[in-house]
């Protein structure tokens, strides 16, 4: 049996894969930065571990995309993605909102890649991209859940603060 010859990917698919891989690396860098900001000593919910783990996951996704590209005789040429202007992440809610925004943008890029792949009838690539999209949707759902949870928690803390009476000062 002769080995199956891989045909090169269409150029526009190569460009789109490079774009998605670059964006995965961009998010990985953002998550690494967030993990450093939300270290365990800050007293903010335990986001450091989550962001550190997600940085590794996003980096691995980028590697998988680039390996696929090389396996199919594609050219690796990662576009530069502008870094966010914000270094201070603020509250846990702001961190989750920022992460959700990054993930939604990645989801859009993956959906655009899937559409392109379907138009080009790249069946193998279609299945490969679908796996990433499935993981992406789960990640977005996870972040949305935790964002709602953090907002509810913050609201409860604020309500409890209204009902706590300050201790009387003694004039001793």
Can you describe what's shown?
With 172 residues, this protein is mainly α. The protein has four helices and no strands. The protein is elongated. Helices cover 70% and strands 0% of the residues.
Blueprint of the fold:
Blueprint: H1 11-37, H2 47-71, H3 92-119, H4 123-163
Helix pairs in contact: 1-2, 1-3, 3-4
What is the N-to-C order of secondary-structure elements (H for helix, E for strand)? HHHH
The helix-and-strand class reads mainly alpha
Percentage of residues in helical conformation: over 70%
Which segments are poorly predicted (pLDDT under 50) over 5 or more consecutive residues? none
Strand segment tally: 0
Overall mean pLDDT stands at 84
What is the count of DSSP helices, taking H or I runs of 4+ residues? 4
Query: What is Rg?
Result: 22 Å
Strand content: under 5%
State the main characteristics:
elongated, mainly alpha, single chain, 172 residues, 4 helices
Task: Provide a quick synopsis of the model.
It is built from 4 helices and no strands. The protein has helices at residues 11-37, 47-71, 92-119, 123-163.
């Amino acid at each position: 049996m002769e080995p199956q010859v891989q045909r090169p990917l269409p150029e526009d698919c190569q460009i789109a894969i490079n774009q998605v891989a670059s964006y995965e690396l961009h998010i990985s860098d953002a998550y690494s930065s967030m993990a450093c900001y939300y270290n365990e000593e800050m007293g903010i919910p335990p986001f450091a571990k989550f962001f550190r783990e997600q940085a590794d996951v996003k980096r691995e996704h980028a590697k998988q995309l680039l390996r696929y590209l090389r396996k199919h005789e594609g050219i690796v040429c990662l576009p530069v993605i502008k870094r966010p202007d914000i270094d201070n992440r603020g509250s846990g809610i702001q961190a989750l909102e920022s992460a959700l925004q990054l993930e939604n943008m990645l989801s859009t890029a993956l959906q655009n890649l899937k559409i392109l792949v379907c138009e080009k009838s790249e069946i193998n690539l279609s299945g490969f991209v679908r796996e990433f999209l499935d993981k992406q949707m789960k990640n977005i759902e996870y972040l949305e859940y935790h964002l709602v949870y953090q907002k509810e928690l913050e609201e409860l803390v604020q309500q409890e603060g209204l009902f706590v009476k300050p201790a009387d000062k003694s004039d001793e």
